């Protein structure tokens, strides 16, 4: 099976918007889980069930991008050179600019919802959930909600042993769309 190709659009963002989800996904990867197995941090067969995932940090050009906390990152590929992706991490307001969210349910940082409704009135903006899924689009209401959203994806798409290990490694208990703590899979 081919690796999952996961892209991150490199624009100025709040660091945790990307660092949290990427760290969570990385904690599910085979290479990371193999290290954890060797150090006896996870059970022996966990790594074999881990994700085969590649990350692409996609920029308009290969120049540093400034984020919050004075963090600078360097894209690893450009929009023109990037291979086809399975997933792309992009902010909901940027995605709304493309028109792809028109007629769909979505959310954004709830502080920005009034602005989002004015700028993109064809999007059905949701203010009652921490994250919203509509077809292939997943949108979150902020950096921590985004991490919760990715944890939900991990629990849906990874072996339960991998999901449990990745959350344990991060000492992280995710919340559901209504901010209630989720039960971590045990098998």
TrEMBL record:
InterPro entries in the record: Class_I_gatase-like (IPR029062), INH-QAR (IPR052158)
TM region positions: none
Top-level taxon: Eukaryota
Assigned keywords, A-Z: Glutamine amidotransferase, Transferase
GO molecular function, one term: transferase activity
Name of protein: Class I glutamine amidotransferase-like protein
